[in-house]
Amino acid sequence: MKAVVVECDYQNPQVERLIEPAKSLASGGIVVFPTETVYGIGANAFDGEACGRIFRTKGRPADNPLIVHVSGIDMARSVCDLDDRWVPKLVKFWPGPLTVVVKSSPSVSAEARAGLETVAVRSPSSPVARALIDLSGVPVAAPSANLSTRPSITDGDSAVRELGDLVDFIIVSGRSPFGIESTVIDLTSTPVRLLRAGSTSLEELEKVFGKIEVTDTAKGIGEDARPLTPGSKYRHYSPVRPLYLVSRNQVISIGNDDRFSNYLFLCSDEVAAKIRNQSFRLGSETDLDGVARNLYYAFRELDQRNVRGGFITMFSGKGMGLALENRIRKATSPVPPAISSMIEELSN
Ligand code: TXA
Ligand code: MG
Questions:
Q1: Among 8, 76, 132, 280, fewest CB within 10 Å belongs to which?
Q2: Which letter does DSSP use for residue 256 in this model?
């Protein structure tokens, strides 16, 4: 199957171009579309067969549920049991990159929620996603539009390259504004728990929801066998080429060593200015939002370039810091002994 590729302006979508994709969604089709975080691969959440196709297309483990995208509170009520006390809090973040886990209504296909009693719901702010949901008239179950284990897709070209032969429509609207997935919180527990750090910061959430319990899963550590959020136990967000996590000082030394000229250095603008080997600039150290916007794009760039692998440094801090830290941990592999002895030798 060859997907129909539809170009659409992100801010002011040409609604007429979304009519066919929306019809396809409503009648069992699979549509890739831009959200404000990353691109999603969507199907009608009520249609178990169509949702099943998403799992097969991505190679996604059947026990990892999808996020259901809705136009707002009213549509959310058609897919879950939403306690009234959450509504004034939710509307402070919706539409936007916040996903909440709540009790599912039986109408959501068992495939979409991977057989769980709960469902993950969010109302995206992307004007294209909103128009698509409105036109199709159905809630759209959509995980990130990458093949399973690969980095999420944050630009249209990568969507066409990776999924062009696998879905019905791909709506292309340039680079994703946030670049990292939505934050996932669990509203079925007291206190509210953070299941996945993401594009809505913990600090902003705590102002509205009170103290939030940050699970190890959300920090990217402690991969227990029965994690709170099924997705966390799988390998994630990884480039195909090896990517190694090193310190800022180490990058500056190996980034100027000829033995590492066939590696790509994913680093801040400030570090890139100090090294000679090839680098991909993630943005300024003082702008974590900018780094988030470029992170997955850089992972994909690493796979496109003719290099042996890559090096990256940690980014952490408030706001986007927690999500960045989690994604970088998950995408990187331990430095092999041969490389670490070279690094050590350089630091002596
Ligand atoms: O920004 C985003 O959230 C993007 C865009 C497309 O909206 N979507 C996305 O979906 O990142 P995905 O499938 O890559 O991640 C969904 C996460 C997974 O970690 C999954 O395990 C978790 O949400 N999840 C879904 N339903 C859940 C549930 N009922 N309980 C706990 N975790 C759930
Ligand atoms: Mg994903």
A1: 280
A2: T
d(CA 168, CA 173): 17
3-state SS, 49-102, equals HHHHHHHHHHCCCCCCCCEEECCCHHHHHCCEECCHHHHHHHCCCCCCCEEEEE
247 C-alpha vs ligand 2 centroid, how far in Å?
A: 27
CA pair distance 196, 216, nearest whole angstrom: 10
For ligand 1, atom 27, name the residue with the nearest CA: 120
Q: How far apart are CA 34 and CA 177, in angstroms?
A: 10
Residue 46 pLDDT > 80: yes
- Ligand 1 atom nearest to 142, measured from its CA: 6
- The token pair that represents 13 in the structure block: 């979508």
Cα-Cα-Cα-Cα torsion 236, 239, 245, 246, nearest 10 degrees, comes to: -170
Domains and CATH numbers, the chain: 4-219 (3.90.870.10), 243-347 (3.40.50.11030)
* Helices 15-26, 127-136: inter-axial angle, 10-degree rounding: 50
Is the minimum distance from the CB of 182 to ligand 1 under 6 angstroms?
A: yes
Q: How far is the CA of 32 from the centre of ligand 2 (A)?
A: 13
Q: Is 98 in the pocket of ligand 1 (CB under 6 A)?
A: no
Q: Cα separations (Å) of 107 from 41, 65, 86?
A: 20, 15, 21
Instruction: State yes or no: pLDDT of 226 exceeds 50.
Output: no
Query: How high is the pLDDT of residue 324?
Result: 96
pLDDT of residue 224: 45
Closest CA to 301 of 255, 235, 239: 239
Query: How far is it, in rounded angstroms, from Cα 265 to Cα 181?
Result: 23
pLDDT of residue 123: 98
Average pLDDT value for residue range 89-102: 98
Mean confidence (pLDDT) of the chain: 94
Q: Pick the residue whose CA is nearest to atom 6 on ligand 1.
A: 40
Cα–ligand 2 centroid distance for 152 (angstroms) = 6
87: Cα within 13 Å, side-chain hemisphere: 12
Q: How far is the CA of 184 from the centre of ligand 2 (A)?
A: 12
